[in-house]
Amino acid sequence: MEAKRCILCERALTSDNNSAEHIIPNAIGGRKKVVGLICRDCNSDSGSKWDAELARQLESLSLLLGITRQRGKVRAQTFQTHSGGSICVNADGTMVLGKPEIQETTTGTTTRLRIRAATKKQVRQALEELRNRKYPQLHGLNMDDLLSTAQDQSYYCSDPMKIPSAFGGTRSGRSLVKSAIALVYDAGIDPRQCDLALDYLLKDGKEACFGYYYDSDKDLIINRPSRLPFHCVYVRGCSEYSTLVGYIEFYSLWRVVLCLSESYTGSDFTHVYAVDPIKGEELDIEVKLDLSVSDIREAYDYKLYDEAAFFDAISIVLSMVREIDFARAKDRATQDALETAFAITGAKEGDILTDEQLWDFAGIIAAELVPFIVTNYADHFPEALQPRLFNGHQ
Ligand SMILES: [Zn+2]
Q1: How far, in Å, from the CA of 368 to the mean position of ligand 1?
Q2: 128 CA to middle of ligand 1, Å?
C-alpha cells in the first residue's frame, strides 16, 4: 500500500524524495527495506537521530558477534579489562592492546622498562613520554636503535573484558517503534493505523508505547535458535479488540512488547521479519504474542521484567560471543600455523613432500598450535600430558 505522504512530516512522496527505509537498521545487520513510508529527509534525520543511537547502544554486541552490514564495517572498539588494562577489538575479531602497558622494575640503582603496545609508533610515543617526564637519561639513547630491538609478539589474553551494555532512552526507543511501524506497512496495512506509535515518534513528552519483556515462564518466541544471534520484529492486528501490538527482539537480548494502536480498524493479521545479522539471511522465527493490551501496558512500568529471565538472556548472548570468538581464533591459529610451516620449510602448495619433509611440516604446525591448544583445551588434557604440550617442539 502506498503511504502517499511521509508518515513523519506529511510531505507528499514523489519519485524525487521517496526513500527506502530499513525495517531493522542496517547498522545492526538489518537488510529488508520498505519504500513509500518516509521521505528522504526524514529517513536521514531519523537515521542519524534515532537509529544511530540504537546502533551505538548495541555496538559492542555488533562487533563481538561479527555482524555484517551492506555498507561499512563495524568500528573497532576499546574495552576495559578487569585488571585495568584495555583491549581494542577489530571488526575481524583480532585484538590488540588498547593502550601501551609500561612495566618499571627497579633493582638497586637500575630501572628496567618494559613497554608493550599495539604498534611500534605507540612504543616510540610511550618511550618519548617517559623520557620527557621521568627519565631524562633516556635522552642519551638513540630511539631508532632502541626500537629496532622491539619484538613482535602475540599471545592469548587471560584478562576478562568488560562489555558495556546499556539500552534505553527516547531516541533508541523511537527507532524501535519506527521498526514496528515499517513492518505494519510491509504487511500491507496503512501505517497511519499505528496512531499511538506515531504520537510517540512525533510528539515530545508522550508516554512510551513499549516496555521490556522478560518472563522465565513464557518465551514469546516459539522456535528460538539457541546458538544464533538474531533480530526479530513481529506485529499483530486484532479486529475483535481493535488493537495493533508488536514484539521486538535484538541480539536475543533486548526484548520489548509494544502497543501501536488501540483503535485499529483493519482485519486480523500477523507479520514477522527476522534476520541473522551475521549472514544477512532471513530467518523463519515464530512468535506467539498472546498478551492483552493491559498486559503490554504493565510492561511500560517494568512489571513484566523478570530479572532472572534477563540474566538468562545475557548468558545466551555471551555464550554466542564466546562461540564466535573461539571459531575465529581457531581459524586464525590454523591459518597462521600453515603459513609458518610453508615459510620455514620453503614448501609450496601442491608440492609433493618426502616422509621426512612431511614430518617436519606437521611438527611445525603442531608446535605453532600449542598456545591455542593450551589456552583453550588445557583443562581437557590429563595432567601428565600437559608438560609435554608446553615443552614439545621448541
Ligand atoms: Zn518526511
Answers
A1: 58
A2: 53
Q: What is the pLDDT of residues 143-195, one digit of tens each?
A: 888 888 888 888 887 788 888 777 888 999 999 999 999 999 999 999 999 99
Ligand 1 geometric centre to CA of 12 (Å): 8
3-state class (DSSP) for residue 243: strand
For all residues of the chain together, what is the average pLDDT?
A: 90
Per domain, the residue ranges of the chain are 18-58+167-305, 74-166, 321-391
What's the angle, vertex CA 288, arms to CA 216 and CA 59, rounded to 5? 65
CB neighbourhood size of 75 (10 A): 11
Distance, CA of 310 to CA of 136 (rounded, Å): 54
241: helix, strand or coil = coil
Residue 139's Cβ-side half-sphere holds a number of Cα atoms within 13 Å equal to 6
What grid cell was written down for 202?
Answer: 512525533
Using the mean position of ligand 1's atoms as its centre, give its distance from the Cα of residue 9 in Å.
4
Q: How far is the CA of 367 from the centre of ligand 1 (A)?
A: 61
The label of the residue with cell 606437521 reads: 362
Residue 307 Cα distances to 163, 212, 229, angstroms: 19, 11, 21
